[in-house]
Structures are given as C-alpha cells and as structure tokens.
Amino acid sequence: MPQLKGTRWSEKWADLYAKHEAAGTLDDTRKLLITRKIAHAREVEKAWDEAAKNHGFTQVYQKGWTIIAKLASEKPGACKLYAAIARRIDPRFGALIATQEALGEACGMHPRNVRIHADYLEKEGYIVRFRAAGATAYCVDPAAVWCGRNTQKDEAAFVVGVLQSKSESKDFKVKVLGAIGRPGPRAKKGKAAVDQPADDTGTDAKEAA
Q1: pLDDT digit string (tens) for 40-88?
Q2: Average confidence score pLDDT of the chain
Q3: What is residue 201's three-state secondary structure?
Q4: ∠91-92-94 over CA atoms, to 5°?
Q5: Which comes out higher in pLDDT, residue 139 or 196?
C-alpha cells in the first residue's frame, strides 16, 4: 500500500464504510471487504508511525545549537542544565519531570543553582516550567531540541504551555503528567526523576553565574 503525504488510508476506508452505511448499500460482502481493508491499513500505518520515531538519539536543530553556543559562552552553568534537560526529554511532549535535587545531582551543582539557572533559561525563553507531582516539568522548545515524531511537535508542552490559558494549561498539565509519569518515591531525595550520572565537565557546584 503506497503512502501519500497527509493520507491515512484507514480513515479513507472508514469514510467509505460510513458512506455506504448511510446510503443503505453496505451489504455483508462489502462490509467484510472494507472492514478488512481498514484493519490492514491500520497495521501498515502503525508500522509507518513506528519507523517515523526517533530511537536512541535527540535532534538538535540550528536554533538549539545557537542556544547552546550562547549559553556555553555566557552562562556555562545554565548551559549544563539546559543540556541535562534536553538529553532526557520524553519523546511525546518534549518535557522532563524532575526535582531540583535530581537535576542538581545530574549536573553536579547545588539545587539552589539549578533554580537560579532554570530561572535564567525560562526568562530567556529557552524552557517553560510548571509544577507537577511535587516536582517540576521542564519543557524544551521543540524548534530547538526534539526526540519524538515530527508530527507531534504541536503537542509539545513548551508550545502548549505558551499558548494556553491558565485553566486549559491546568488540564494539559494533568495530561502530560499522565503520559510522562510521576517522579518515583525517591524523587524527593533527588534520585528517581533523572537516571543518568553527572557529567565530568561543567561548573563548580557552588557556581551560580
């Protein structure tokens, strides 16, 4: 089955099914044929969707490299935090849920400095934050860094967080939390939300600038 850009064959077959049903022309033979076509199309589309995913790597676009270069030159600590968040974002919403303690351990810096650097990153428009399950969701701009399917960028927490009202944003935060998951029971101690060790490079744990 050839794939046409923007086409979901399962939807087209489903539309045809509905048209025949509305016209009273959906006999048993046609019903069985179209039902099988829909099932086959969905299997093929599922394979296409899986192949379209990014596995095992994160895409950094030109905007992302520009951000990293600027931070590396002017705010090394913020650069290290940005990189720590970007490398761990989930593929659906482009967000990471973690405590300051967990990110501090991952970056080799004091939790207080995590907050200071995060404040700077959000002020500059590089990330968006919101509270989630006693921790914080750090959302990265999908135009800068992304690890999911390209077609899911419109659902990125960074984009929706910027565009939604407070009431809509609250509902979306619940959706994001359900998809990404809550920090584990050790997150309060700073160990569950981030599972990778601290890098060797970066700033001193006491650095805040």
Answers
A1: 988 888 877 766 665 667 889 999 999 999 999 999 999 999 999 998 8
A2: 77
A3: coil
A4: 65
A5: 139
Helix (H) or strand (E) holding 159: helix 157-163
Q: Which residues contact 185 (CB under 8 A, 6 or more apart)?
A: 192
What is the DSSP track for 18-44?
HHHHHHT---HHHHHHHHHHHHHHHHH
**Distance between CA atoms of residues 46 and 105, nearest Å:** 38
Distance CA 147, CA 153 (A): 10
Can you name the CATH fold of 59-189?
Arc Repressor Mutant, subunit A (1.10.10)
- Please provide residue 53's backbone torsions phi and psi, each rounded to the nearest 5 degrees: -75, 155
* pTM for the predicted model, two decimal places: 0.56
Provide the 3-class DSSP secondary structure of residue 128.
strand
DSSP 139: E
Domain ranges of the chain: 9-52, 59-189
- The span from the CA of 167 to the CA of 173, in Å, is 10
Quick one: which of 51, 46, 57, 116 has its CA closest to 81? 116
